[in-house]
Design brief:
binds nicotinamide-adenine-dinucleotide, six-stranded parallel sheet, Rossmann fold, 2 domains, 335 residues, L-2-Hydroxyisocaproate Dehydrogenase, Chain A, domain 2
């Protein structure tokens, strides 16, 4: 107390300080995506206990200080950082991994595989030293393969390793549908499943607005024969990332919001459904040990159930093809 005279005059300590909050979230990687996640989580008040890690010490410290100075507006959140001391992540409820190289202009997500696997090898085992039972949310690309990599490296049960998968693609899809129909994106019900990115599968057969399926109004919807060319919406979804990267260098806000929504499902144990990358073996006759997105409910323990969607033969075939291609790529990964 001698070193803190004012403190000593103001307070009489009555118990030991408690630092464990039970809602600790760690974000690995404070690039554009990591910081968009951090900002969304803090401003949506999903956590008041945030840890940031990144190998770029200056950026890390700068980002932490910038956020800390807004802490009074963020339910007095505690924000900590470390570049290399993984003990700071101890007892995280959720760990979000955004670290990695990002796509270069025109580069496919698959080309990033080994570069980002090597980064994961330097991160995931260290996280597991200090966290017995966390939920991992993988964002780094190629997200489906890296979720598999994180699952293998972590030894966690499969329901605790979640890839953000096509949740972002689905949100882009809903937005584009909403623009055509002039209603809110959240009132447009449609799913993009399978692989995040170029080979994602739009489930046209179940796109609906308040239960009215668009296939009933336009049986050719989503096909090349459709005169209204709804198919172009999916093409636009696929092109979105490339387009935004071309325009501003990276994508960030929508993925940050998507991650924040998934975190809210976990924190509040809602069983809300998201299009998430999970082990797809056993679904839709797929036998490959790969992760692809399906509508999945999320609660306090991670993924609690997966929806057995009624898909058309062509939708199933597209999923199976994605699984085959990914399994082939995974064979080449050096663990
Ligand atoms: P970025 O380059 O801005 O940030 C990546 C950060 O990771 C950097 O700050 C870098 O220093 C850090 N990093 C690299 N290796 C590290 C290590 N070993 N330990 C700690 N930190 C490390 O990239 P970004 O734009 O933030 O994108 C991050 C990732 O997210 C990319 O793989 C990108 O493709 C992916 N992404 C995924 C989605 C999705 O929907 N899943 C959407 C957008 C971006």
């Amino acid at each position: 107390m001698a070193s803190k005279p004012t403190y000593g005059k103001l307070f009489t300590d009555v118990s030991e300080p408690v630092t464990k909050t039970g809602n600790k979230v760690t974000i690995i990687g404070v690039g554009a995506v990591g910081m968009a996640c951090a900002f969304a989580l803090l401003s949506e008040k999903q956590t008041n206990d945030l840890v940031l890690m990144d190998m770029d010490r200056n950026k890390l410290k700068g980002e932490m200080l910038d956020l800390q100075q807004g802490a009074a507006f963020l339910r007095n959140a505690r924000i900590q950082e470390s570049a290399d001391d993984y003990s700071i992540t101890r007892d995280s409820r959720i760990i979000i991994v955004t670290a990695g190289a990002r796509q270069r202009e025109g580069e496919s997500r698959l080309a990033l595989v080994q570069r980002n696997t090597d980064i994961f090898k330097s991160i995931i085992p260290k996280l597991m030293e200090y966290n017995k039972n966390p939920i991992l949310i993988i964002v780094s690309n190629p997200v489906d393969i890296l979720t598999y990599v994180a699952w293998k490296l972590s030894g966690l049960p499969v329901h605790k390793v979640i890839g953000t998968g096509t949740n972002l693609d689905t949100s882009r899809f809903k937005y584009l549908i909403s623009q055509r129909l002039d209603i809110a994106p959240s009132s447009c019900h449609g799913w993009i499943i399978g692989e995040h990115g170029d080979n994602s599968v739009p489930v046209w057969s179940s796109v609906n607005v308040s239960g009215v399926r668009l296939t009933e109004l336009n049986p050719k919807i989503g096909t090349k024969e459709d005169e209204e060319d709804w198919l172009s919406l999916h093409k636009e979804v696929v092109q979105s990332a490339y387009e935004i990267i071309k325009l501003k260098g990276y994508t960030s806000w929508a993925i940050g919001l998507s991650v924040c929504d998934i975190v809210s499902g976990i924190m509040r144990n809602t069983n809300n459904l998201y299009a998430l990358s999970t082990l797809i073996k056993g679904f839709h006759c797929i036998q490959d040990e790969v992760f692809l997105s399906l509508p999945a409910a999320v609660g306090v323990d991670g993924i609690s159930k997966v929806v057995n969607q009624k898909l058309t033969p062509s939708e199933v075939q597209q999923l199976q093809e994605s699984a085959r291609v990914i399994a082939e790529v995974q064979k080449g990964i050096q663990f």
